[in-house]
Design brief:
Strand order of the largest sheet: 2-6-5-4-7
Motif (HXTX 2): 153-156
Structural class: alpha+beta
CATH topology of the domain at 23-98 and 123-146 and 176-198: Cyclic Phosphodiesterase, Chain: A
Number of strands: 9
CATH class of the domain at 23-98 and 123-146 and 176-198: Alpha Beta
Family: Belongs to the 2H phosphoesterase superfamily. ThpR family.
Strand content: 25-35%
EC number: 3.1.4.58
Catalytic activity: a 3'-end 2',3'-cyclophospho-ribonucleotide-RNA + H2O = a 3'-end 2'-phospho-ribonucleotide-RNA + H(+)
Helix content: 25-40%
Mean pLDDT: 89
Number of helices: 4
Order of helices and strands: HEHEEHEEHEEEE
Distance between the termini: 75 Å
Low-confidence stretches: 1-8
Motif (HXTX 1): 66-69
Largest sheet: 5 strands, antiparallel
């Protein structure tokens, strides 16, 4: 009996009885750059890392560069009903393509302050696209409480400290041509593309 108790304790210590932590499934509409724009964003991130080593940041991998447009929430598992509704909403969005110029990096506040790439001018068509998706979601019964104002940006890194002031970068011109529906599992480092809708040229 003592042997069994000792073995059970050893197994517990090795973690074999530990249950895995619950997953967080994230769903959102996003804009993702093409390869040339992604490369230029990566160059801007590298330059920032060289200029500010004190950030001690976790840098975003280039394939994950994106701008979140409409956040649909975090869930313990992927909500398939919401996925279906989101796709129906996107089918009803008819918006034009537009150019967006990113020209500076700044910090958001947080436990690990994000370093984000932004544009001095936010294109009116970008704001219109965000609003149209919001309205399309509401029209099919997806009503959400906005947690924060819409601030278009591309996250470059999560840092140990904030930038003391914004850092200008060589302007990056991005022709936004698609709306995407993305699913990710927080901490897993992979994005699953659930849908892609072209913007009118």
């Amino acid at each position: 009996m003592q042997y069994a108790s000792t073995m059970t304790e050893r197994v517990k210590q090795t973690g074999l009885f530990n249950t895995p932590p619950p997953e967080t499934h994230r769903l959102f509409f996003a804009l993702m750059p093409d390869e040339p724009v992604r490369y230029r964003i990566q160059q801007a991130a590298r330059s920032l890392a060289e200029q500010h080593p004190e950030l001690r940041a976790r840098w975003t991998r280039p394939e994950r560069f994106h701008a979140t447009l409409n956040f649909l929430g975090d869930y313990p598992q992927l909500p398939m009903e919401l996925v279906t509704l989101a796709k129906l909403a996107a089918d009803n969005v008819h918006a034009p393509s537009f150019a967006w110029t990113l020209d500076y990096v700044a910090s958001f506040r947080g436990r690990e302050p994000p370093c984000v790439l932004r544009g001095s001018m936010v294109p009116p068509l970008l704001l219109s696209l965000w609003q149209e998706v919001e309205q399309a979601l509401a029209q099919i019964g997806v009503h959400r409480r906005a947690e924060r104002p819409f601030t278009p940006h591309v996250t470059l890194a999560y840092a140990r400290r904030e930038l003391p002031q914004s850092v200008p970068v060589e302007p990056i011109s991005w022709q936004v041509q698609h709306l995407l529906l993305i699913h990710s599992v927080v901490g897993k480092g992979h994005y699953q593309l659930l849908g892609r809708w072209p913007l009118a040229s």
